[in-house]
Amino acid sequence: MMHLNLFLLGAGHHTAAWRHPDSAIERMGDISYYEDMARLAERGKLDAIFLADGQAATNVSDSPRWFLEPITTLTALSRATERIGLICTISSTFFTPFHAARLMASLDHISKGRTGWNVVTSMFDAEARNHGYESMPAHAERYARAEEFIDVVLRLWDSWADDARPLDRSGDYVRKDAVRQILHHGEHFLVDGPLTVPRPPQGHPVLFQAGASSEGRELAARRAEAIYAVAYDLPAAQAYYSDIKARVKAAGRTDPVPILPGLVTYVGSTEEEARRKQRELDELLPSEAALRQLGLYVGRDCSGWDLDAPVPALMPLEDFTGPKGRYATVLRIIETEKPTVRQLLGRLAAGGGHCTMIGTPESIADRMEHWYRNGGADGFNLMPPALHSSVGDFIDHVVPVLQQRGLFRREYEHDTLRGHLGLARPPRS
Amino acid sequence: MMHLNLFLLGAGHHTAAWRHPDSAIERMGDISYYEDMARLAERGKLDAIFLADGQAATNVSDSPRWFLEPITTLTALSRATERIGLICTISSTFFTPFHAARLMASLDHISKGRTGWNVVTSMFDAEARNHGYESMPAHAERYARAEEFIDVVLRLWDSWADDARPLDRSGDYVRKDAVRQILHHGEHFLVDGPLTVPRPPQGHPVLFQAGASSEGRELAARRAEAIYAVAYDLPAAQAYYSDIKARVKAAGRTDPVPILPGLVTYVGSTEEEARRKQRELDELLPSEAALRQLGLYVGRDCSGWDLDAPVPALMPLEDFTGPKGRYATVLRIIETEKPTVRQLLGRLAAGGGHCTMIGTPESIADRMEHWYRNGGADGFNLMPPALHSSVGDFIDHVVPVLQQRGLFRREYEHDTLRGHLGLARPPRS
């Protein structure tokens, strides 16, 4: 069975989605806006809601990227839903492992076993400068800290036995030998423990990661229980998928470690209607600012480009001296989609280098199935371009097709995120 | 009007409450247990729910003091209630100000302006050793850090203008001049800002503090918007009250700064029924352990003491060489209440040095009114000995008497905690 998570972000993953008359920008600070979408996703039997995070408000004028904080948001969503998982991004660079372990253990109790942890190491100096650092620690240093951080969090979750509380009113409230210190004294952290929260219902909330760099892939292979990926097309997805699965195996692990690439979808009852939905959002992009941004990506002045003409020829990747990753994505979009300038701006504005599928429910289900059956994905992290209309389009029209084909659950068979993902509950170590 | 907060802790403030057949120890990890009590408190029109916090699980065998984490718990409670305030304890010693500002701002949006912050500096080495310190920073150092921490949090809350988002789909999402960095570069913190969360509905969540030491009282006088106090009896309450009010005035402030002493109540339809409720809990105390604990407090072996005899004579305070504060409380309880050994153990097991009132609803209301009208209290922080029976006793029987006397609201007149407490919304500074 496929796994499907819903990645909620601002007014949608298309940066111009908030400008649409149907957007709910008046409700961005209203928790009921998020609750409505979580209930919709639960109606579609999705595995989980996923929230990203960052520790610095940048480009606040551009879009409603910043508002509520994820752990509080997901706690509220846990009370508006009953079965769907709740995945929270928490940075190992800016929290102490004790706070992280405690917040997630508490959410796992409140949600009765539906918590996931997307561990990130963060990237930007602007984030570091909100938490006492002059600049971001180096990449290798962040990953070394992350691995120690994960170890400490897992040990804190295991500091209470599952059956620590005998619930005998005449004896001890907790069995004396059932709660232990961890006495961690490492390179980055000093943590005596035990945690202030009994062992989470899932044992450990499910550990997600999105490793792209070599350090990230190695950490994912050793530690992650499920993985987010960025894949522009099936060959890229297959390359990542087979690399990670091989590394997981080399690490001596036998658990499934589902891999979920990001997926942007525009769904219509006809191809034309789907394309119209995409065009409607693309046309909301303020073209002057978008061309300025594109100029930074491709290293030349784009301000005079005709929005409705094909993209002018660009220099080959090997001659480009700026950041290569994003430039490679631009070249690939041009090569495979032959877009107009406006279409290119729209593609970059919605999910960037992630896969985009546009079409009828059947044609999108075809392509998802193709990825799923051909070693590209164990499921997808859905990145709806416009909230909540794109969520409804997917849940109401694509999910039923996947269900008819036996690719996706019709009912929840488990009560925990770990159950939805087919992951075993870890014994206390 | 009086202010009343409900301080929820474990199975109640009496350490033996969990042993009572009516306790809900089976539900300590179930958020609905806390939701039920929050709804009960809201039915009684209380100002707020208050949660304490600590960063180390000590004496886990004794009582269910440790379970859910407060910010996640209060977020869940915000979705089960509509008007009651939600006060979260957050330590300035163990969080970064950015995390603290962000979590509380998010809860203030989710709860639509019902958040309070009880700022503490924490006390125990065991807490420090969960967050990277070898031992707890010195008292003066903690208070210096706390004051800088509060400054940074307030400035982060003010980093967005109230009207930053014009909600105009054709312009900028946020007015460019409406969000600013704070560029704090102080003794303890480097924080550039701005916050990732728009300005909270209350401007600033309400700042509570419980200063007892001289540094604590000074910080409270300069910064706190409402204050928790520990007062064993009215003279002690009056001394604290007049000292703090004088310090607030000396700091040039004119806002009301309500002072709320802790209050343990045993309510019965007769004096005898109230005393029976107290006795029922006291008799659940494991006497051997309680006598051992008492031995530590009074510096002598109490193991042979007769539980139902009067407390043997103790040495005067000036001759005692151990911690004087708690010893003074013990002497005072003996002097004023002439308790048996069991009664003394019971008093120490429920709220310790806090005021305890036992009796009918009318007689408890009399004493609360007496404190309120005689410069002892602007209200109380209710510390029910047994959950949730003591909460029901107070809400159903004492609150109506206070309402009849015009001492307590019959309906909420405001939607925010700031409104309930009669505090103005701070303009952005």
Explain the overall architecture.
2 copies of one chain form a homodimer. The first copy, chain A, is built from 14 helices and 11 strands. With about 425 residues, the first copy, chain A, is α/β, with parallel strands linked by helices. Chain A folds into 2 domains: about 325 residues, Alpha-Beta Barrel (TIM Barrel); about 90 residues, no CATH class. In chain A, the strands form 2 sheets. In chain A, strands 1-2-3-4-7-8-9-11 form an 8-stranded parallel β-barrel, surrounded by 8 helices. In chain A, strands 5-6 form a two-stranded antiparallel sheet. In chain A, strand 7, helix 6 and strand 8 form a beta-alpha-beta unit. In chain A, helix 1 packs across helix 2, helix 8 packs across helix 11 and helix 12 packs across helix 13. The longest helix of chain A is centred in the middle third of the chain and has 19 residues. Chains A, B: GO terms for molecular function: monooxygenase activity; oxidoreductase activity, acting on paired donors, with incorporation or reduction of molecular oxygen. Chains A, B: InterPro entries: Diverse_substr_monoxygenases (IPR051260), Luciferase-like_dom (IPR011251), Luciferase-like_sf (IPR036661), NTA_MOA (IPR016215). Chains A, B: It comes from Paracandidimonas soli.
Summarize the structure.
2 copies of one chain form a homodimer. Helices cover 39% and strands 12% of the residues of chain A. By secondary structure, chain A is an alpha/beta fold.
